[in-house]
Every structure is written in C-alpha cells, then in structure tokens.
Design brief:
single chain, 0% strand, mainly alpha
C-alpha cells in the first residue's frame, strides 16, 4: 500500500512538473510570436530563422558543455530529420505571423494533431477510429471559421489565402517534428534534440540570406534577440514536457499558447477577436482533444 502511495505521489509530481513546463512553453512561444509580428516583415524570414538558430546554438552548446553531454546523440538520422522538419515549420510559422493576426496564425498551427492522425493512416497504415473522422471535420470547420474574418476584411485575398496555406504547411511540419521528438526523447537528452534544430537551420537558411539580406536597425535587433531567446526557452520546455506527460495531455496543455497569443494580439497590436475566431479556436481545441484521446490506445501499442 505504501509503495502504491509513493508511486502515486511520484506520478502526481511528475505530471505537475510536465504541466508547468508545457504552460511555460506556450507562454514563451507566444512571446516569440509577438517579436516576429513586431518586426512586421521588415526583415526577411530567412534572417529571422538564421538569427534564432544562431542564438539557440550558442546557448545550447554552452549548456551541453557545462553538463558534459555528448552533443551528437545516438539517433543522428532521426535527429537531422527532426531538425529539417522543425526548420521548414519555423519558416512557415514566421511567414504566417507576418501576414495574419497572431490569434489566427496560432490557431491554424494547432490543427497539427489531425495531421498527425492522417499521416499515421497514410504512412503507417494505422486504423482511423470513427471519432477521429469527426475530430478532423470539427478541426477543419474551426480553420474555416478563424480564416473567415481575414478573407472578408483583407483586400488582398490571394495573399491571405497563401498565408493560410503556409500556416497549414507549418502545422503539418509541426506534427511530424513532434512525432520525432516523442521518439527521440526516450533515448536522447533534451539539449541534444534542441541542438540539432539550429544545426540544420543555419546551413538551410544561408542560401536564402545571400539572395535577400537586409541589415537590421534600431529596435529590430531587440525583437530578433527576443525571437532567439523565447524560442529557445519554448523548445526546452516543450521537449521536457513531452518527456514527462502523455502526448494527448501534452498537446492539449500546449494549446495555452493560443490563449497567450490572443491576449498579446489584443493588448499590443489592437487585433480584434470576433465571435468567429472564438468559435473556430474552440473547434480546433475540441478536435485536438478528441484526436489525442482517441490515439491513447494506439500510443500504448506504437510508442512514438
């Protein structure tokens, strides 16, 4: 009985710690979104990704050296794939944030659990439960609802549609990257997983910078540094949170980023939250919860 009680207390503390990490991740990523939005497209996306990666790799190397951790890991191929998926996803997310309101871009990003289910069906031939089909439908209704205000008010419809598609591509890359993180976290140290992200991002972004370089000036330097620092904190928190909590619970909690981003959008950028955005965000949240709860039995059988 005493052993069960101690095990229960340990699990409670572990879950509480994971919850704190994931809420911290949502908060940090929302501040990263503020920094990207504040730059407002004055600096090319490739430079933002490069700057973010440069700051991240310096901080990560310091902590790897301090803790005497082998930076190269054991699953190098999967680590590189995770870095590539994360890099492409970051390009997409940054681009969408420069065009769409923070709340809209963030909500669209959180459709990624439905992408995870669809990819598992196509690639792994996993069976899709009926409730998963419902969750996909609800999720895409949510995307239509949050996109509607932009399509109705923005005079450049083509640019808006392109931004929405880019945000959806970012969500797809995020879903695949998170699957890699979940797989890697069983053997790799969180700092090693984070290290490979900028290790891939830097050489990936250099060709784009050469063709389209803009020297930052004034306060833009502060926003760029903020992008690097807040993304690094978010990456560390979400990697640790995914290690401590089941994927379904982790994904639902990480949705806190939408709440934080919506608050910053209203307070800092005077963005208006319509009933359509509220309802669309709620639909995406419900879709996320259904998708991840329905995948719990599969998670036990197919450890990600």
């Amino acid at each position: 009985m005493r052993e069960k009680q101690l095990a229960g207390e340990f699990n409670f503390e572990k879950n509480l710690k994971g919850i704190k990490f994931l809420i911290g991740s949502g908060f940090a990523f929302s501040l990263m979104s503020v920094c990207v939005k504040a730059i407002g497209g004055r600096i090319p996306i490739s430079e933002l990704v490069f700057a973010r990666a440069s700051i991240s790799i310096i901080i990560t190397i310091f902590f790897l050296y301090k803790n005497k951790i082998n930076p190269w890991g054991y699953q190098k191929k999967l680590l590189i794939i995770r870095g590539l998926l994360g890099t492409v996803g970051l390009f997409c997310i940054f681009k969408a944030l420069t065009i769409l309101p923070i709340a809209t871009a963030t909500v669209i990003q959180y459709i990624y659990p439905t992408f995870t289910v669809i990819c598992a069906y196509i690639i792994l031939k996993e069976f899709i439960l009926k409730r998963i089909i419902y969750s996909i439908i609800i999720g895409w209704i949510g995307i239509v609802l949050v996109s509607q205000p932009e399509l109705n008010t923005n005079s450049n419809i083509r640019e808006t549609i392109l931004a929405i598609l880019i945000a959806l591509l970012g969500a797809l890359m995020t879903s695949l990257a998170y699957i890699c993180v979940r797989k890697l976290s069983s053997k790799e140290h969180p700092l090693v997983i984070i290290y490979y992200f900028p290790l891939v991002s830097i050489p990936f972004s250099i060709p784009f910078i050469i063709n389209d370089f803009v020297l930052p000036t004034g306060i833009d330097w502060l926003w760029i540094i903020g992008i690097g620092i807040f993304t690094q904190i978010g990456q560390l928190c979400i990697t640790e949170g995914l290690r401590l909590l089941p994927a379904g619970q982790a994904t639902s909690l990480n949705y806190s980023q939408v709440i934080f981003a919506s608050i910053w959008g209203v307070l800092i950028f005077q963005e208006r939250l319509t009933s359509s955005i509220y309802l669309g965000g709620f639909c995406v949240l419900i879709s996320t919860i259904i998708s991840m709860s329905a995948s719990k039995p599969q998670k036990q059988k197919y450890e990600l």
